[in-house]
Amino acid sequence: MSARNTVKSIQDIMRQDVGVDGDAQRLSQLCWMFFLKIIDDQDQQLEVMQDTYRSPIPEKFQWRTWAADPEGMTGDALLAFINGELFPALKELPAKGAQANRARVVRAVFEDAYNYMKSGQLMRQVVNKISGVDFNDLAERKHFGDIYEQLLNDLQSAGNAGEYYTPRAITAFMVDRIDPRPGEILFDPSCGTGGFLTCAIRHMRDRYVKKVEDEQALQAGLRAVEKKQLPHMLCVTNMLLHGIEDPSFVRHDNTLARPYISYGAADRVDIILTNPPFGGREEDGIESNFPAHFRTKETADLFLALFIRLLKPGGRAAIVLPDGSLFGEGVKTRLKEQLLQECNLHTIVRLPNSVFKPYASIGTNLLFFEKGEPTQEVWYYEHQVPVGQKAYSMTKPIRVEHMQGCVDWWGGAGRENRQATEQAWKVGIDEIKARNYNLDFKNPHTIADEHGDPEELLAQLQADEARTAALRDQLKAILAEALLR
To answer: CA nearest 115: which of 87, 78, 152, 148?
Structure first.
């Protein structure tokens, strides 16, 4: 059975279970089960390759022990084992010895994981389907990785879970423009399900990984943090499916909970690629981790302050920010002033409101900047919905090829010979300062709709109202005459 058919059959089985409600729960259920099977497949391979290797998961709870036999535990006995023994043991798995990092990954995944299934018979059917997959087969793992990406894409329609997903056309475009390479430290401080990470991994493998040392440098350079449990679990599994041997770099934590001043030279990174949460507010006390002039509860603002600090000299970033961050005042103004003083904000790509539908329908922007030189001018590029399409939607989402116009205009790695067009324009730093660091510059090539002279429009409105009143009086007269007959 193909990977796609296997996943579809598993989802069909889960739909029969009264405990699993909706796409988000199905994916969460599938995720922890995939995770345990992948870890066990890796463990078995490592045991063959390394004489001293021992899995951090006790033998009783390894997939090969309790799940691999298709005639093994089922029904109430299987449910009792999973809920009463497996989950409690893995939630408290001790992180010690040579495989401490691997143990931490397992424990972090299961910290807030939950078994939604209520039928032990259906659970056994799902387990048997998953047991048929060999995740040590590179081709099979790649197929499952692609399908997993599609499942994550489906989260966009799964209620609040959609906030963890950035359209792959956007992540691929941002990664392509930043052009990460093995050996560079790449950080996503709010990684969600790992979209930027997987795009960066794919980009580097396609272009720069030629030997084992390149792959080792790639994997050693990845850094990520995710605050919420579900996307953290989805991200860790995503990393395993994309051939990352040690996904312990994906920390289950809140990047903003650490004091701003504590981030020193050892924490600095070459690349930041992220879509930080915006529109939300941090819990009380988080803002006190930041200098007084940057204190706010708005998450996107705190992240931006941190990005400026975390980049190495010469480091580069591509981030997603809402329109409000461009024109906002107060803390936002001070942040933009520091950004333009410490970094070269060379490009802002303005996106249509519909890019993140249905989860969000607000104007968003892609900001590209480099640490070390102050900004002298900012180029803007307005991405437009394809001709003949009013907006992006679930059935007609943004695709990678839609960004090709911006790629063609970009000017290569050196951003050379950029030209003003109907979609592109530049603004100098003096004009930005004159507007008190308001970066919300509209496309000057867009001709405003001609609505006409206000006095003429008012006269036309009054004439239309008079005609409407006369018609109403005429209708009343006709009705009154009809009633008198």
So the answer is: 87
Which CATH superfamily is 3-136 part of? N6 adenine-specific DNA methyltransferase, N-terminal domain (1.20.1260.30)
Residue that has been written with the tokens 């956007």 in this structure: 170
CA gap 382, 403 in Å, rounded? 11
> Given this model, what pLDDT does residue 159 score?
46
In the chain the first and final C-alpha atoms are separated, in Å, by 81
Q: What angle in degrees, to the nearest 10, is found between the helix axes of 22-49 and 100-110? A: 160
Considering the entire predicted model, what is its pTM? 0.84
152-434, which class in CATH? Answer: alpha beta
Sheet hosting strand 311-322, strand order edge to edge: 250-252, 222-226, 186-188, 269-274, 311-322, 364-371, 343-351, 377-382, 424-428
Tell me the per-residue pLDDT of 294-350, one tens digit each, with 9 for 90 and over.
888 788 898 999 999 999 999 999 999 989 899 888 999 999 999 999 999 999 999
> Which residues neighbour 471 within 8 Å (Cβ) at sequence distance 6 or greater?
none
Residue 272's closest CA among 300, 310, 235, 298? 310
- What are 346-363's pLDDT values in tens digits? 999 999 988 876 556 678
Closest to 360 measured CA to CA, from 300, 448, 407: 300
